[in-house]
């Protein structure tokens, strides 16, 4: 199932008691980020955690040759950056706004204080970390063992889920840049272009400029080979 490749911690806020939500909202500092702005970078010391109120953020690593590998894409309603604080380490990756975004910052002091006072928040965070580890392990297995065609198909299915708006039946368009899609699938731009062309020719996807719409979920699922 596609769910084993998708991490989402929106429930962290939704399932908090009202009193804990009020405490959290009281210490949130809203900040505006423009597209391509970095939120934090690999190797820096964490000073707090982040809550994505609106927009999308990518999480990625850069190898020794400067190649970028997108690990995850956060949607509005998700927390990020907390694992570094909990492990008392520097950030192990970089996060960057994929579009204009509104992000709330919660200082390290306020975050740890909330963990001490809220049993529910601590339990939800532990659940989130466990799920995140499982998803990352599954994604790393895909990157190391699957063909490029399989990885591109899976990336499109993951992105369709990420770009699906709640409560709407409108067509879903993936607006991630080709470079970011290539980095997510772990391939070169030229290889990605050829595979997308094949998918379009086989009527698996529709392309309108940089926008991509998934048309045939069944065939893409078979190609992704994760059933």
Automatic annotation (TrEMBL):
Residue ranges constituting the HTH crp-type domain according to the UniProt record: 146-218
Residue span, Cyclic nucleotide-binding domain: 12-132
Taxonomic superkingdom: Bacteria
Alphabetized SMART domains for the sequence: cNMP, HTH_CRP
One Gene Ontology cellular component: cytosol
Keyword presence, Aminoacyl-tRNA synthetase: no
Record flagged with keyword Lipid metabolism: no
Keywords associated with the record: DNA-binding, Transcription, Transcription regulation
SUPFAM superfamilies membership: cAMP-binding domain-like, Winged helix' DNA-binding domain
Molecular function terms from GO: DNA binding; DNA-binding transcription factor activity
Protein name: CRP-like cAMP-binding protein
Species whose genome carries this gene: Chryseobacterium rhizosphaerae
């Amino acid at each position: 199932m596609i769910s084993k490749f998708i991490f989402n911690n929106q429930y962290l806020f939704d399932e908090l008691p009202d009193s804990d939500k009020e405490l959290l909202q009281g210490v949130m500092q809203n900040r505006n980020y423009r597209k391509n702005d970095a939120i934090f970078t690999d190797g820096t010391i964490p000073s707090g955690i982040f809550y994505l109120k609106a927009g999308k953020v990518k999480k990625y690593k850069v190898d020794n040759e400067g190649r970028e590998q997108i690990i995850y894409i956060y949607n509005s309603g998700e927390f990020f950056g907390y694992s570094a604080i909990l492990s008392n380490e520097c950030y192990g990756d970089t996060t960057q706004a994929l579009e204009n975004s509104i992000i709330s910052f919660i200082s390290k002091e306020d975050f740890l204080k909330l963990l001490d006072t809220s049993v529910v928040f601590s339990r939800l965070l532990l659940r989130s970390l466990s799920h995140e580890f499982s998803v990352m392990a599954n994604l790393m297995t895909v990157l190391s063992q699957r063909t490029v065609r399989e990885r591109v198909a899976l990336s499109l299915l993951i992105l369709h889920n990420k770009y699906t708006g709640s409560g709407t039946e409108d067509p879903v368009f993936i607006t991630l840049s080709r470079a970011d899609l290539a980095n997510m699938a772990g391939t070169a731009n030229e290889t990605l272009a050829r595979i997308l062309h094949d998918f379009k020719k086989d009527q698996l996807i529709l392309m309108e400029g940089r926008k991509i719409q998934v048309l045939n979920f069944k065939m893409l699922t078979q190609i992704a080979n994760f059933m």
